[in-house]
Design goal:
Surface presentation of antigens (SPOA), about 20% helix, alpha+beta, about 130 residues, 4-stranded antiparallel beta sheet
């Protein structure tokens, strides 16, 4: 075990040969070994690292927005909206809806329902690009 020397009470009393020991570096202590590179860097092959990264990325949740249409109104018109007001959209009934991720169109789809009309979904018709 390596013991560190206690610093002198008065630094002026130190002899030059004692200065390293006095400040905590005893002469008989070996410097700690440098860590092995395998400890610092993963020993996994690069294809395994890529697969691991891909698996982690694949688990990131994203939100898909389904936009059936858009419209622009003035502030005055919006302030006069009451229950039952209908906005005219820029698409007709039955036209493909826009599928957005992070505000960007990635595809187009159609609105679908289950046989009992209790669940609404969207079927992808084509991808943008």
């Amino acid at each position: 075990m390596c013991e560190l020397a206690k610093p002198a009470d008065n630094p002026a009393d130190l002899a030059e040969s004692d200065s390293l020991a006095a400040f905590g570096a005893a002469a008989d202590c070996a410097a700690p070994a440098a860590p092995d590179a395998s400890v610092l860097f993963s020993s996994m092959p690069s294809e395994m690292m890529r697969a691991d990264a891909k698996a982690r990325v694949n688990d990131i949740p994203i939100e898909i927005e389904v936009v059936i249409g858009r419209t622009k109104v003035s502030v005055a018109e919006l302030m006069n909206v009451d229950r039952g007001h209908a906005f005219r959209l820029d698409k007709r009934f039955g036209e493909p809806v826009d599928l957005l991720v992070n505000g960007r169109i990635f595809g187009y789809g159609e609105i679908v329902t289950t046989d009992d009309d209790r669940v609404v979904g969207v079927r992808v018709l084509r991808l943008a690009g």
